[in-house]
Design brief:
The complex is a heterodimer.
Chain A lengths: L9 E6 L7 H13 L4 E4 L8 H10 L5 E5 L10 H14 L4 E5 L6 H12 L7 E4 L4 E5 L11 E5 L4 H10 L2 E4 L9 E2 L5 E2 L13 H17 L8 E6 L2 E2 L8 E2 L1 H15 L3 E5 L3 H19 L10 H5 L12 H4 L10 H4 L11 E3 L4 H11 L6 E4 L15 E4 L6 E5 L4 E4 L5 H8 L4 E2 L10 H5 L8 H4 L6 E7 L5 E5 L4 H10 L5 E8 L1 E2 L2 E10 L3 H14 L4 E8 L8 E8 L4 H12 L4 E10 H5 L13 E7 L4 H13 L2 E8 L3 H4 L14 E7 L2 H9 L19 H6 L2 H14 L17
Helix pairs in contact in A: 1-2, 3-4, 5-6, 7-8, 16-24, 17-20
Chain B lengths: L8 E6 L6 H13 L4 E4 L11 H10 L5 E4 L2 E2 L5 H14 L4 E6 L4 H6 L7 H19 L7 E4 L4 E5 L11 E3 L4 H10 L2 E2 L9 H17 L8 E6 L15 H15 L1 E7 L3 H31 L1
Parallel strand pairs in B: 1-2, 1-11, 2-3, 3-5, 4-5, 5-8, 8-9, 9-10, 10-11
Antiparallel strand pairs in B: 6-7
Helix pairs in contact in B: 1-9, 3-5, 5-6, 6-7, 8-9
Classes of the chains: A alpha/beta, B alpha/beta.
Amino acid sequence: MSVEHGHPLRFGVLLTPRDGERAGALAERARMSEELGYDLVSFRDVPGGLDPWTLLSWAAARTARVRLTTHARAHGAGADHPAVTARAAASLDLLTDGRVELVLDGADGTLSETVDVIRGVWAAAERSPLRFDGEHHRLTGAERGPAPAHNLPLWITATTGGAQALRVAGRKADGVLLVPATGDAPLAPDPGGVLLAPDPGGVPAGPGTGDGLARAAALIDEAATAAGRDPREIRRAARITGRFTPESEGFLTGPPRRWADDLLPLIRDHGLSTFILATDDPGTLRRFAVEVVPALRAARGEVAERTPASLFVRRHRREGIDYDAVPAALAGTAIEPGDAGFARVRSTYMRGGSPGLVLRPGTPEEVGQAVRFARTQPVKLSVRSGGHGISGRSTNHGGIVIDLSRLHAIEILDKAARRVRVEPGARWSDVAAALAPHGWALSSGDYGGVGVGGLATAGGIGWLVRQHGLTIDRLRAVDLVLADGTRVRADETEHAELFWGVRGAGANFGIVTSFEFEVDEVGDVGFAQLVLDVTDTAGFLERWGAAMEAAPRDLTSSVIIGRPSPGRPLIGQIMAVVNSGDARTIIDRLQPIAATAPLLDHSIQVQPYASVMHVPHRPHDGQGEPVTRAALADHLTPELAAAAGRLIGTGLTYFFQVRAVGGVASDVPPDATAYAGRSANFSLVAFGSSRRGLDAAWDELLPHFNGTYINFETDLRPERVHDAYPGPTLRRLRALKRRYDPDNVFRDNFNITPSDP
Amino acid sequence: MPDYGHDLIFGSFIIPANAAPHEVVALAQESEAAGLDLATFQDHPYQSAFLDTWTLLSYVAARTERIRLSGNVINLPLRPPAVLARAAASLDLLSGGRFELGLGAGGFWDAIEAMGGRRLTPGQAVDALGEAIDIIRGIWDAGERSRFRVDGTYYRVEGAKRGPAPAHDIGIWLGAYKPKMLRLTGAKADGWLPSLPYIQSLDEIAEANATIDAAAVEAGREPAAIRRLFNVTGRFGQGGDRFLDGPPEQWAEQLAALTLEYGFSGYILMADDAATIRTFGEQVAPGVRELVARERAARVSGAGR
């Protein structure tokens, strides 16, 4: 009988704390195991010895590749609450980028409940709190999460006779770890320092155990099938002990060949795919790794089958996506709705989503594979860099998302030319931090949490825009994956027309995998926040607009006005950056804008540009759809200011913002890039709650505007494409689209159709 | 009294957010690089946005060399004391004596119960903490041959093997505000660790010190056996007359005064950016040390005259 479950062979060690041993020595053996090529390290829980979870976390920080597993503290007075255990395991998994596996002991009746509680905590994609009313565990509405970094395998230990634990494993676990019947009974070192299991009847302990293994496998398979699972989902492992001796003396007692001969039938006939060697003897560790493991791998050969996805994952799949056809290079990092990390990738900053598949390519080549796969699937395709897109629909419902967050490198290409290469998944906060040590900065948006890709293909109106231009104005070259999955480089000479289109309408032509910028020298800046009474809204906007147009280019500022509340003054907030570290210059620049309305409060700090942009990583958990309108305006004329004042007065917008543009951004001719709104001194955006209400009110303002900036616009009516791209620009873009994306694969964001609709 | 004469320690209080685990680790490393003595993390095991504090402490300990680490404070209701004692001793051994045990009785009982923990009244929680301290010290007492048994109201230990013994005398620091908890601090703990946002006035600090001191004396201990540490918030800027709102020199003067008048010898800054941590470690800490040393020397020579 041959059993093949499609799991790769893995080999681990079980290390045991010894009395009087230096604590660090044990962690050192873990590191050595990693160097020897072991796949797994675990620690035995010895009464009065080092705490295994602490030890595991320590060892995790001192290793880089090896997977780490330990028994949860699950019994009696020494038991952790299972919800705490779940969070601890998920935390270590996050800290180690997915290297943790958890083993639960099957000694008492709480096992099944413990599994349910742990999985319930990890199910962070569920919006409801975790309630559990069991015989042993009771939770009355615990928060869920965090989800582990990967589908963290839950193992259950069992003896071949432990029917109850084997059945629970068949129903619920990812793996069974078969252990000797006497479990953790004290192990006696033999004269050579090798640890021997005292129980010859344990598993696996010699010829004749085949029956026990077969019975155990039958119990697991039967329980799995009854639960609707594929029995191959459950990995089978065994803990082994043995001794290397010159002559063959017995089961796992002999030369390496004897070991291989003893273990191979367990792999071939009983479907075991993981072996945990319990030893602390360096010689045995080394010999097993060097002489036994390669023999077993060679004897087994390549595994052709892929491990089947678990029942849980399969149940959560969406129609229309051929999950089994996902390219192998992408399958390992892709996230489906049933996967652990789904809660972290489903939604974006402002928008709730429930995609059917999130592909996370790690190289440009993989981006190409992702595009080639996605275009064959009859579902929506979204592309995401940082996930802040307001207009960019970088998530969807039931479709595919290509998430570029793993492409986040930032490197200096040429110090003298201040040329840097940035990948699309980096965030502007990270870019600013990477450039700061060189005394450089790149004008980006005004919020550091935003990703590079979506901003650097559309425009980029940030804190240095009036002095250094739009982000796209500092762009010198891009590497791009096109709609057919091929890769091109575009700059002023090569694919020059494409390079023109990428700067303002990039999302329509491909996925940029690398941006090359020429950055600027920027030192400390003055960052000010002014709070004003803007009850005279129109007058204030007009005065602030005039002050900004008259201001030197080292000043950039923006205004935010909230929803009015009856009986209170209307509050406006100005944020401003002065590109100078000199206090006098900063005050000089700020005074005119501070005088535009009664000043209620202010704070001014001199700090590095990178500090202004600093935003810690936060998970995106947007819900619903943002409702916004956006526009560019050349001047805040009395008429526009009055109309904006009326709009704010209606309460239809809870966040109204005007950003100063102009300056260097307006020195660039309108046909130099696909961003055509060069004459604009101002960019406006309003956030509302009612699509219909905001559209109606904003449409009244249209005569005052001159184009729009696509990144803040959520109106899907076709006129908006014409606002952003006036006639000549649009004609050029359509020609480009016909050439580079004739099938309109990239249509998720401000779609330029190949032909006039 | 106050000024109990302890050497000064300075630390950081870092939010253990799980959104970007490596940034949290990096801030602890920044704390070490800035010369701080201590990096601490709050422990709210019911909070899904946080990393498990114990796991994080262990991981950070392995990624740092010199800095001491503590929970601020560890949530006793969801961390059984016998497990906690072993884990604390293990971490102290692994890190070469760099672990301190900030401990709290628990406060968010709805959340604790929701996780499967046991709901106690605040008074019961203080009693439970007292029992837990005895259990923790009993586990650490590895030289004691007898099996360890405790039959308490809140915790039972049935013949556990003791050990391991920690590498150094781990300080047990309690987050305490109410009289009963302050008395427990004086009777059994090694440190008092309140937080500035929960303190209403300087008088409250003076009264708390007096309560701790009286309880210590009653238990036959020196009041100076209990270190006073303070979690503080503030910002560096142009400044005003508010507490810890101004340039580093102003912070140093204010903290030195707190040490000399109110007995604090540890300051832990709630900060989540590297620049603030650096300013605290490189500018404030040496400033406070210098001011306090000068004044202590003056007091000694003044007393000797």
